[in-house]
Write a structure and sequence with these properties.
Length: 116
């Protein structure tokens, strides 16, 4: 994609980028606790299990997605928690392992991301 190409070229393409780095986060749906008129709605109760089921079903889902890529590619991806996406963003900015080069985290990566 455009953001990935720009980040890869800016960072030196994945190593040896002269101290520059880039991380592109590509989540699908992001869930967390939503507040409506001060009332918390914990979306993780629903979308946490949905994310797990989608990750477990990927061997079955991927052939269908590959059959109809124009309709399904990018739409059928596991949701990620806001905590996972935030941890990946913070790590991308501060973790030493990401201090040089280019990293792209896809929806499946972000659904199971653990802070460094």
């Amino acid at each position: 994609g455009g953001a990935e190409d720009k980040a890869a070229s800016s960072s030196g393409g994945g190593g040896g980028g002269g101290g520059r780095s880039a991380m592109v986060l590509k989540p699908g749906m992001i869930y967390g606790t939503r507040y409506e008129k001060g009332v918390p709605i914990p979306l993780g109760v629903i979308f946490g299990p949905v994310s797990w089921l989608m990750r477990m079903a990927m061997p079955v889902i991927n052939p269908v997605v590959n059959t109809f890529p124009y309709f399904l590619k990018g739409a059928v991806v596991p949701p990620a928690s806001v905590e996972n996406v935030a941890a990946a963003a913070v790590d991308g900015a501060t973790a030493e392992e990401y201090c040089e080069g280019f990293v792209s985290l896809l929806p499946a990566d972000l659904a199971v991301y653990v802070a460094k």
